[in-house]
User: Fold this.
Amino acid sequence: MNPSVDTLASNLNVLDRLHFCPSIKDVDTDEFAFAQPAEVFEAKNGQCTMRCFDDSGEFLVHSRFDPQAEAKIQIEAAGIDENINVAIVFGFGCGHIVRQLLSEVDSKTKIVIVEPDLNSLCWYLMHVDETELLQNDRVNIVGVTDPISAVSAVMPHLALLTLKGWLPIISPPFMRKHSEFMTSFARELDQQTATQKLGFATSADTSHLFMTNAFLNSKYAAGSPGLLQLKECWKGRPAILISAGPSLEKQLPLLAEVKDHFLLISMGASLRTLRAAHIEPHIVVTVDPFPIMYDHFKGVKSEGAWLLSDMAGNPNIVSDFSEKRLFGHSTPQMEFLFSKLFGQRGLMISGGSVANSAFSAAAVMQADPIILIGQDLAYTGGASHAAGNVKRLEINDELVAKNPQKYKKIPGYYGDEVVTDDKMNSYRIWFERVIPSISMSRIINATEGGCMIHGAENMPFKDVVDQFLPDRAVDFDDVVSSLPNFKATDERSFRANVLRLRRQVRTIDKVAGEAADAAKNMMEATRKGLEESEIDRYKVLFNRALKTMRRQKGAGDLFVTGFVQKGILYIQRRQALFHENEQDETFTNYTYQLTLKNACKQAEQLLKDFLKKTKAPKKVA
Amino acid sequence: MTDEQFSFGAMCEECVNYIIKVQPTLERISNDLRTAPSRDLLGELVGFEEGLSWLVSFGSKSDIFLPDDELKSEFAFFVSQIDQGSRDFVVALENGDYLDLADVIDYEFLPALIRMRDTVAPLVPH
Assistant:
């Protein structure tokens, strides 16, 4: 078996087009003349095999007698069955496991190959023309050396919407050669899948609440600026993000001294603790839509603070806490939908926690530096929150030991180990992902406790104050009142836009009803064994309804689907995974249209209540 | 039947029984080496090495009891196969190469043992 530059070029051409191997072209194949990354040779059965080497000696990547039979054993041991639709193979080797999988699993199963050894992959691809295998649309190669990038590239294949079950296939030589990669990969995968699950569940379970809250808040948002208008408004000036972690307590005396000089952005959860220390923040951030979040605000009124709320934030907080309101949207879809009612307010991207959202806001405002305090994201001293917090939880070693799935140890602020949980850990991961993309602000973690947030600069709060204390006092009210790009939407225009939205909802309701009827008739006709021409007649009606529906794509569509996100996700998942024939598809279409009709009913009710309570305009446009 | 012939027959029986007993164990170890190797597996292989030495010794010293050249040649072939396998085995063990260990078991030791079993079985006295 002789290496050939032409063979490699053919393989790389396909690899580059169809797979994710961004750095493979950087591999210096000229070096292979002096140091070959592996030995590629013919096995006793005539198939290709490979041998690698490390400090402990030589070792086979595949059997030197019958690599394909070995691949069969390895797949069987991994336990693949009909519930698996994604197989992740670690290491390409000579492709035997991939080939065997293709012959064993059904056509819906995707195969993802994670290959951190680009040299060996290139070297092998110099020997064998694998263009046919590489062009198989069930095969996806992720060729990256960094485990974190590898996980990010693998995650789309593990999307919950289309995932039935997944299975890793790790051969002993891969573990020998890449044990460190594998450890980091597993840790990162654990974190990313937990975050994905949390996001999926939140999105599915709370979409109705999000939509209802956002709509109830919209009458305030119509007259208030948003993050889009606040863009760069605090450019080059420091801001302190005050979270409610246990380490907040020790910073309070110094914070009280400098409270008028730093822009204080407090999480809702920190409010009571700050009040007890006679500190009024300039901005209080709230994101959570749940009624229980009102506990942080119950009986607490702003004494000058602005409320920065996610559009879907708890409407009682939005209505009661402060007359001075600012808004942001957590998704582009929400931004698009509500822009049709009162214009754009900007995105306040979140990683799940209010601190993540507040951080996004500070970055949009281009505060510099952005200083974190109370951002423990861990059970510092066994507590979840600072004293005085209504949600404070206390844990002990016994509880941690009993719940290894929930609690884990991560690197601490001082290089020690601290205990965190899945949720807090996902917020930390979000910070670590986002911080490198913030180029206009220095990020300082002055928590002096809790977890280590990689990417943020650790600095004692006292040093931060010494270094960054501004001379002039905070004038945030002046800044907001002179925002150049903000124009409130008057009530008449707003009501007219709501009425337009209601018309769209009614159209969707009507069309969904027609489509559901046509789908139902199609199923009935098939069940009764009617003639094809009769079934086709219903198909035409159904397709016509879908065509009309497609024309409704816009605010009304987003508004309606927002009410039944969980049902729609369920249907999409069913569609992606279990469609065997045309009847399945018709049934799914039928249930989808019924789900839409149900959503229209909920949307219509909300709009009706809203319009009843809102003062009628003199003239509707 | 002389005592010596009786004793050789008993050894043949022992040889066949041992191979019958060890075959599934070796197949399991080989599978595990290809999928989930561990130090315990290597421990199990140490026990097998002793059995193998006994078989080689039996194969080498049986010459005088074997009735024809064909059988003598079969026994000699067995000994040479196991010798070669043992050398490969030691190299694989030194490299910590689990797949190579599995290859030696599957494609060198097991075929030789099965062939030996089939050769020796007719020599077991009934």
Observations:
- Residues 617-621 of chain A have pLDDT under 50 and may be disordered.
- The CA atoms of residues 27 and 555 of chain A lie 48 Å apart.
- Chain A touches chain B through 21 residues (CB under 8 Å).
